[in-house]
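Tutorial, part two.
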Amino acid sequence: MQLHIAEYPQLRLIAWNRQDDDFIEEGEALALYERNWRYVDQTQLSLKERQLIDRLVNQYGNGVFHI
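Running the prediction step on this input gives:
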């Protein structure tokens, strides 16, 4: 499944080298979050984006968020 980068502000921040209208595979999104977590402003995460991260961790990370 693919995600629209522009729908998730912190994902957009860490996917700075992609276009706003790009789509990204969910597993790749989790890898981006994990590699770049230090750049994510956790206080600015929306509920929608937090739920996305939780779902990605459960589905693609086997419940482990490698940060």
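The longest strand covers residues 2-4. In part three we will examine how such features are distributed along the chain.
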